[in-house]
């Protein structure tokens, strides 16, 4: 599967069909309590996305939406569990083969994590969310992260319910078209503070880790 940037952007309205897809069940060994939490949060997220409509996009200064995704160890991650530490977040998918898209974002996130550690910053989350959740299982993401040198102490590679990820992409301003075995998408990397407020973002795959590092330093 290939991945190419969208060359021409226009206003896109996502049509929600009436067909009902099988309910997403989470990892096979997930705790039933976590499944219930996931379903509750994702239902609220979807309603919020629909209610926001054309204003689903969350700008700098707004708070991130709640989320319920699974990390590379099959553990549930929510907005509440992330609070207390700043977050650098971006979106990728592991099968992307275009060097200046997802592989570049992944390499920059690993570099940022490493340089933050060298600067004594050990209280931040570095998060990559897959928008190919049907392929990118926790096991796939764990191998992907290990092969690319992430320190799993504060790096999370997240997957989950495809509808929830679609809602998150709309709220974070990521556009994607999946067609002819190709995922065309835009890119955005965000800095979120320890209370969930979106502080800063760079759009496009050419984002620079340096401004994120400087902002992380200023938050210490």
Topology of this protein?
Blueprint: E1 2-5, H1 32-52, E2 68-70, E3 76-78, H2 79-82, E4 87-92, H3 102-118, E5 125-130, H4 138-147, E6 155-158, H5 162-172, E7 176-179, E8 182-185, E9 188-192, E10 198-203, H6 209-218
Parallel strand pairs: 1-8, 4-5, 5-6
Antiparallel strand pairs: 2-3, 4-9, 7-8, 9-10
Give me a quick take on this structure.
By secondary structure, this protein is an alpha/beta fold. It has six helices and ten strands, in the order βαββαβαβαβαββββα. The model is unreliable at 4-19 (pLDDT under 50).
Structure description:
The chain is of the alpha/beta class. It has six helices and ten strands, in the order βαββαβαβαβαββββα. The chain has helices at 32-52, 79-82, 102-118, 138-147, 162-172, 209-218; strands at 2-5, 68-70, 76-78, 87-92, 125-130, 155-158, 176-179, 182-185, 188-192, 198-203. The strands form three sheets. The protein has a five-stranded mixed sheet, with helices on both faces. A three-stranded mixed sheet has the order 1-8-7, with no helix packed on it. A two-stranded antiparallel sheet has the order 2-3. β4, α3 and β5 (125-130) form a beta-alpha-beta unit. α1 crosses α5 (162-172) and α3 packs parallel to α6 (209-218). It starts with a strand and ends with a helix. Mean pLDDT is 88; it is low at 4-19.
């Amino acid at each position: 599967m290939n991945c190419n940037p969208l060359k021409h952007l226009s206003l896109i309205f996502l049509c929600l069909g009436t067909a009902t897809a099988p309910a997403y069940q989470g990892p096979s060994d997930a705790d039933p309590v976590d499944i219930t939490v996931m379903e509750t949060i994702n239902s609220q997220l979807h309603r919020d996305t629909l209610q926001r409509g054309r204003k689903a996009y969350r700008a700098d200064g707004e708070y991130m939406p709640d989320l319920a995704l699974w990390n590379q160890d099959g553990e549930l991650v929510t907005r509440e569990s992330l609070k207390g530490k700043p977050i650098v977040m971006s979106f990728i998918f592991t099968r992307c083969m275009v060097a200046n898209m997802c592989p570049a974002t992944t390499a920059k996130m690993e570099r940022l994590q490493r340089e933050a550690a060298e600067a004594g910053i050990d209280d931040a989350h570095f998060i990559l969310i897959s928008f190919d959740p049907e392929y990118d299982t926790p096991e796939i993401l764990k191998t992907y992260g290990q092969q690319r040198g992430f320190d799993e102490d504060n790096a999370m590679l997240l997957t989950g319910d495809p509808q929830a990820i679609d809602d998150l992409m709309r709220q974070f301003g990521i556009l994607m078209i999946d067609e002819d075995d190709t995922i065309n998408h835009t890119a955005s990397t965000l800095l979120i503070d320890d209370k969930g407020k979106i502080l800063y973002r760079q759009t496009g795959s050419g984002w620079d880790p340096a401004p994120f590092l400087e902002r992380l330093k200023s938050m210490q």
